[in-house]
Structure formats: C-alpha cells, structure tokens
C-alpha cells in the first residue's frame, strides 16, 4: 500500500469517527482555502487563471503540497464564465480579479404576493430577468444564453471536480467524508440575499412581517430540494452559510428566521444527510436555538467564546472554526501557535471537534504564509482529544 493510501485510510477513520460520535486518535485538521488564494500563492494572474481552468492543476497542486490538511483544502464555488454569459448583476468580476457580490434587489416589494403563491414561477418569470440581463429578452435568446452558461458551468466545475479527485488520491486526503456534498441557504437568507437585498428585507421585516413570513415559508421546500445531495448520507453533508440572523432583533429571529431554518435542517437529516453550517458573525445570543438542531450538526463558528460554545453545544454537535485568521497576519509564530493550543485545549476534550479557522483566506497578503503553515502543522502533530 502506498504512503498516500496509508494516510488516506487514517484520515478516513478519524474524519468518520468524529461524525459518528466516536473519539478519534487525533483531531482532524481542515484547511479551507479559496481558489483565489491558491492562484495568488502560486504567483499566477488572478483574472486569467479563473478564465482558463486548464492552469489550475499546477496551482492547486502547489497549494496542496505546501499546506497541511486532512481534507482536500481547496474549493472553487464560482467561476466568472457563466456569470458573464448570463450578464449577471449579482456576481460581477472586479478589476482586481475578484468576483464581487453587489447589493441587488431581484424581487420588488410588489412581487411578494406572486412569490408567496408560487415562488418557483416568480423566480423564473420576474426575478431572474432582473438579476441576469441576458435572460431579460425574448424566449429564443434567453434559451441560448442559458444553454451557453450551463455549458460553461459544467465545463469549469467539471474540471475542478476532476482535479479534486486527482489531488485526493495523490495526497491521501480523506475520501469518505464530504462536508460540501450539497448547498443551500436558510429560507430567510435566500429571500434576503438574492431577492430583496439587505436594505429591502430589513425594511420589510418592520413594515410587512407577515408577507416576509409567508415568503420564507413558501420558499422552504425549494431550499430542501436544492440542498439535498444526490446521494445523501451522514458523511455527505449539506453546506449552509448563515447570514442575516446576527442583524435581526430577537423576536424577529424567533418568528421569521428560526422556524423554517430548523425545519430545513431536520428535513435534510430525515432525507439521510447531515448539515454543515457556517455560523457567520456573532451567534452567541442564539446558542440555545442552535442546540435544538439535529444531533451531530457540524458548526463552523466565525466569532464567539470558545468555552461557552463548547459547554453549551459540544456534547451534541461538532464544533469547528473560531481560530482568528487575522492573527496569522498580525501575530508572531509563537503567538499563533499559542492560540491554536488554547483553542485545542478548550474544544478538543470529549471529542466532536475539527480544527479550522474562523474564515477562509481570500488574498495571499491577508496572512503571513509561514504562520499559516506553522499553525496547520502544529495542529496536525499536537491536537489530541
């Protein structure tokens, strides 16, 4: 058996054990790295490399060789090709080579009734043409634009997926656990992010809360369909980034956000899967709610008190995140390693812990690379339960 296969076997065991509620022989280490970071790290042109995916092989390989991770560390969620072909207004390539997500309002306030009656039809007929200019035309031109964009999507994402498989085999990454097996949003976040926008939804919550509630409830079945993996298993999780809750009043969260999100998570588990949620911003006032989610939910926290989170959630759920990525840029090597030790000492005892950072690095100058590598290697060698 090759060294890579031996390593993969060990990683498969520790990653599965965490999800199964067992205590592995060591803490899994997940280095979640963006495609943009990898391109910059390899010294390649950011814009050109996202258009010509054939160059990603060497780029990803170099990152995998230099940064420790028990899972495939790089993920590419978005490429500019299909957004450009659709004339996207919600994801626009900036002059610096980064896809920007401007504030958009795909759904007008007067669209609520149509959305509540049939969200799918409203999205197709009213919302998409506002967000994508190439879909705001006659049916023949619209069909052609959609076909071109879907072909570009399949080509670019297919290249990335094939590359992931190659690197998993070469570096012996965990191959039996995929925390990104599916993707969706909390129903409230979906209505907020792409449809009404931050300003619009904040206004609606105060002026027309009943319509917001009805819209969120109406779109919940679409989020379940979107988020259910093709082959749902407890090792093939659905990734759900959480957005709006920290900016809401407690009573609005309890009434408008939580019920459909909890139901979504429960239904994804009923379908045979597992939830991997990115607890974005500060959710400390909502920890009691998070406890109610299906047992074994993986929660990657951006902010919060590690001890409180461990005490409240660590016996039922799997905790990750919380290591401040900014420290890798401002701290010394010793300070960075001391922080890793501190978090491991708090979060590892009793199991249900995966070492990772509070954010993913996007720009190569946002961290000191030597600190990043040192922390990952320290965690791999010293993080025990």
TrEMBL record:
GO terms for molecular function: uroporphyrinogen decarboxylase activity. SUPFAM superfamilies: UROD/MetE-like. This is Uroporphyrinogen decarboxylase (URO-D). The lineage of its organism: Bacteria, Bacillati, Bacillota, Clostridia, Eubacteriales. Residues 181-357 form the Uroporphyrinogen decarboxylase (URO-D) domain. GO terms for biological process: porphyrin-containing compound biosynthetic process. InterPro entries: UROD/MetE-like_sf (IPR038071), Uroporphyrinogen_deCOase (IPR000257).
